[in-house]
User: What shape does this take?
Amino acid sequence: MSKPAPKRFQPPAIDRLPEDIRTRILAVQEKSGFVPNVFLTLAYRPDEFRAFFAYHDALMEKDSGLTKAEREMIVVATSAANQCHYCVIAHGAILRIRAKNPQIADQIAVNYRKADITPRQRAMLDFAMKVARHAEAVDEADSAALRAHGFGDDDIWDIAAIAAFFGMSNRLANFASLRPNDEFYALGR
Amino acid sequence: MSKPAPKRFQPPAIDRLPEDIRTRILAVQEKSGFVPNVFLTLAYRPDEFRAFFAYHDALMEKDSGLTKAEREMIVVATSAANQCHYCVIAHGAILRIRAKNPQIADQIAVNYRKADITPRQRAMLDFAMKVARHAEAVDEADSAALRAHGFGDDDIWDIAAIAAFFGMSNRLANFASLRPNDEFYALGR
Amino acid sequence: MSKPAPKRFQPPAIDRLPEDIRTRILAVQEKSGFVPNVFLTLAYRPDEFRAFFAYHDALMEKDSGLTKAEREMIVVATSAANQCHYCVIAHGAILRIRAKNPQIADQIAVNYRKADITPRQRAMLDFAMKVARHAEAVDEADSAALRAHGFGDDDIWDIAAIAAFFGMSNRLANFASLRPNDEFYALGR
Amino acid sequence: MSKPAPKRFQPPAIDRLPEDIRTRILAVQEKSGFVPNVFLTLAYRPDEFRAFFAYHDALMEKDSGLTKAEREMIVVATSAANQCHYCVIAHGAILRIRAKNPQIADQIAVNYRKADITPRQRAMLDFAMKVARHAEAVDEADSAALRAHGFGDDDIWDIAAIAAFFGMSNRLANFASLRPNDEFYALGR
Amino acid sequence: MSKPAPKRFQPPAIDRLPEDIRTRILAVQEKSGFVPNVFLTLAYRPDEFRAFFAYHDALMEKDSGLTKAEREMIVVATSAANQCHYCVIAHGAILRIRAKNPQIADQIAVNYRKADITPRQRAMLDFAMKVARHAEAVDEADSAALRAHGFGDDDIWDIAAIAAFFGMSNRLANFASLRPNDEFYALGR
Amino acid sequence: MSKPAPKRFQPPAIDRLPEDIRTRILAVQEKSGFVPNVFLTLAYRPDEFRAFFAYHDALMEKDSGLTKAEREMIVVATSAANQCHYCVIAHGAILRIRAKNPQIADQIAVNYRKADITPRQRAMLDFAMKVARHAEAVDEADSAALRAHGFGDDDIWDIAAIAAFFGMSNRLANFASLRPNDEFYALGR
Assistant: This one.
C-alpha cells in the first residue's frame, strides 16, 4: 500500500534522477513535507515529467480570472467523472486548503450539482464537465452561457484547458494505477 | 474558412511572438511548406504552447518500440472516437505518409476494427481505445493482452500516454474549434 | 446550508411527530450525538419512514455472512455510481468507522477497482455494481463468480438487496436534495 | 416454467410461514384468485417482505393526488426502462384494470412518448423516468415543469418515490429472476 | 386515436392508390380482416412501399433455417430495444400466433434474457441485439458462437438482415408516429 | 485486401447471376468504371438485392427538395455515427463529387457540427442524427425546427427515410464486413 504505482513503472532512486527533476522533487518535499506520488511516477519518463509539470503550472499556478480554488474545483469535478483515484484524493486536498472549506471537495466529487457553490461556479463546472465528457458538442452557446456569468474569453480558455489537461492526467493516473499519498486523505479537513 | 480558429483566440502576428515560438513555427513552415493551425492557435498561450509541443515531441518523435506510423494510428483511432476534426484530418495525413498507405487513416478513423492492420496493431488500438474511453477500468489483464503480442512495459506506457495526450489535445481542439489546414486533406493520398 | 432538504419537504417539529418516529429519532440522537438528516426528511411521510427504516435495518443491522463494513462498502460504491451526495458522505463515514480505515470510503467512492480491498470484496462490489447499473443482465454466471469466492446464496441475496435498496434510497435523496449533516464529513478520519 | 423464481430462493411451504405473512398471502389469494409470485419469493426473507409491502402500500394504496391508474403508469414506464419482466407484466395487468384500458400498458411499456396519455400524464412520466434513469440531475426546473401541470409538492414526492421504490423492486426482481404468474398476461385485456 | 399516423403523411384514399398497391392492400385485408397501418402509411410513398414490402417478404416469408416464429422473435426483441410502438405491438401479435404462445412476445419485449426460449434462440437473439445496437463491433467470434448452436451461414445472414431491416423499420415508424391497429393488441392471446 | 467481403458470403460469378441483376451490375460498371462491392455482396441474395436497390433509388435518385449532395451528407453523417467502413468511404466519395468539394465528406464524417455547412444543412443533419441514434424520442418539435429552415413535410420524410435506410445498410455492411473498393478512397479529392 505504500507504493505509488506498480513496480514496473518505478523511477530510479531520487539521487540518480536528472538534476532539474531532482531539484523540483526536493523543492516540493521541502514545501509539502512529502513528495506527491505523481512526481515519482512521472520521473520514470523525464521528458514527459518536464512537459507535464510545465503544462500544469501554466494552467494552475499563474494569475487568472479564476481563483486557485475554482481551478481545483474543475479538477475535482472532472476527475471524479473520470473516476481518477489519485486526482480526486490529491486535488480534493488542495481544494479544501485553497477554499478553506473542509466539505467542498467531497461535495463536488460526489455530485457537483448539489455542492455549495455559487451560480457562477455552477456554470463553470457545467462547462468543464461538457469539455470532459462531450467536447465534440461544445459550441458558441456554451461560451454565451459563461459570459452571462461574467467569464471572459481568457477565463473560458482556462476552464476548457484545465478540463482537457486533467482529461490527460486522469487517463495516465488510471492507466498507471497511481496512488495518492496517505497524507492527502486528511489534509485540509 | 481560412481561419484556424475563432477570432477571439487568435494569437498576435507571427513577428510579435516570443522568439522561441517564432523559431519553431518558422521551422515547421520551412519543413512542411505551411504552418499547421495548431501552432498558431496555441501560440495564443505561449507557456501552454511550449509545454504542449514538448509533451508531443516526447511521445511522438523519440525512438520507441512503436513505429511512428503505429503512434499515428493511436492518434487517429482515439481522435475519431473523440470526434476531433483537427486531429483526425491532420494526423490522418501524417499517418498516410508514415505508413505509406493512402487508405489506412480513413479505415482507422471510421472503424479501426475493420482496418487492414496486424493483430498486434489491433491489440494496440483496443488498448488505446480503452484508455481513451474507459480508463477507469484499465487493469493488469490489459497489459497481459499486450504482452502476448510482444509489447513491453515501455511500449504499454507509450500507447497509454499517447491516448491520454490526445485525450487532452482533442478536447482543446474541439473547444477552440481548431480547423485543419486545407493542405492536410490531400496529403499522402 | 444547515437545512437537510428543501423547505417544501420539511417535517413538523420533532415534538409533533408520531410517537414511534419521535422515539426512534431521539434514540439515534442519543447514540450518535446528532440526528442524521435522512430521519428528518423521511419523517415528512411517517408510513414511508417506518417502511424505509424497517427495510434498512433488515439488510444492514442483522447478522449476515457479510461484515457490517462490507455492507457499507456496497452502499458507498453503488451510491457513488448514482452520484448520491447524502449516501456517499453519510455511509462513507459509517464505512470508515466500521472498517476502522480512514481511507477506504474515499477509495471506493472514486473508483472501487483501485481500492485496497480483497479479491473477495472486489467480486462482491463487481456484482453490486451490476445490480445497480445493469440488473437486467444479471444471470447465473454472476452467482457462480461469487460462489467461487465463498459467498453462499444468502450472501448473494444480501449483496443484491443492499444494492437495490440503495438504488431506491439514492434516487429519493437526489430527488429531495437531501444534505448530509456536517458531522459526517469528518467522522472516522 | 411454473416456478416463481430459482429454487435456491424458495420460501418454506405456506403453512410454515410466519403468521402475519401467511395471513397477508391468504388474503391476496382470496381477493385475486392467485398469489402473485412476488409474495412467495419475498417470503424467503420475512423482515424484508414486511418492509417491502408496507412501503408498497404506503405509496400505491393510500389516497393521493395521483389516481391509482396514474401510479401504475409510473410503475410500468420505469419498470420497462429497467427491463423488469415481473413488474412490467404484473403491473401492466393492474394498470389495464385500473385504467379500464386494454392497450395503455403495452403502449407505455414500449414507448411512453407515443402512448395515449394526457399532457399532464406525459409530464408525470417524463419526471418519473428522470428519477429512474438520471436522478443525479433532478433539479428545481423539474418541479416547476410539474407544477405547470397542476402537480403539488405531495404529488411530486409521490411520483419520485414510486419511481424510486420500483427502482429497487426492478433490481430485486431481475436479480431473483422473479417470474410473473401466468394469470397476469391476460388480465384486463 | 383511430388514425394510423399524423395527417400530414396520410396517403390518398385507397381507390386512388396505384393498382399494385391497392391490390396488395386488399389482399391483406382479405386475409387478416383489417389493413395493418404500416400499409396505409407507406402508401404515401408508392416506390418506398414496394421496396419495403419486397424486402420484408424476402426476409420474413421465404423458407429459411429459422422458423417464422424465430424470425418474429428477432423482430420483437430488436424493436423493443428501439422502443418502436408499432413494431412491438404488431409483430408481438404475429409472434404469439406463429409460436402458438400467448406469453412469449411480452417476455421477449420486456427482457429477452428472461424469456422462455431455448439456448439456441438465446444465442440468436444475443446476436440480433448486437447487430441492432453495436453492429460496428460484430466480428467472427459472433458467428462462431452461432455455429456452435447449429446455425449456418445463411441463418446468420438471416438473423443479421432481419435485425438490420427492422433497424430501418423501427426508425421509420418512430419518426412517422405510426400507430398499431387496435386489433393487434389482443391477437393470439 | 481485394475481396469485397468474407468468402462465405461471396455471390456466384457474374455470368451466373440472374439476368436483371447482371444487367444492373454491368450498367454500373459501364458508368463508374468499376463495380462497387455492395452490388457484389448483395447479389448473394437476389431478392434482397432487388429490394435494397429499389429502396435506395427511391430515396437517393428521385427528384426531391433536398439536393443529391445534401442526401449524401445525411448518409455520411449517420454512417459515421454507426462506424460503417463501406458507407463512409463509398458515400464520402459520392458526396465529394456531388458537392464538388473535396473536404466536406471528411468534415462531416469526423464531426458534422464543425463542418462547413449552412445552418439549414446543420438542422437537417441534427434531425438525421436523432433519427439514427434516438428515433424513439423524435417528436413534433423536431419537425417544427426543420420547418423553420424551410423544409416541408416531404423533405422531412426524406431526411428521416434516408437516415433509416442507412441505419439498415450500415448494420448489413458492418455484419458482412463489406469493404469499399480501392477506387472510392481517392474519388473527388
About this structure: Residues 153-175 of chain A form the longest helix (23 residues). Chain A touches chain D through two residues (CB under 8 Å). Chain A has a mean pLDDT of 95. The radius of gyration of chain A is 17 Å.
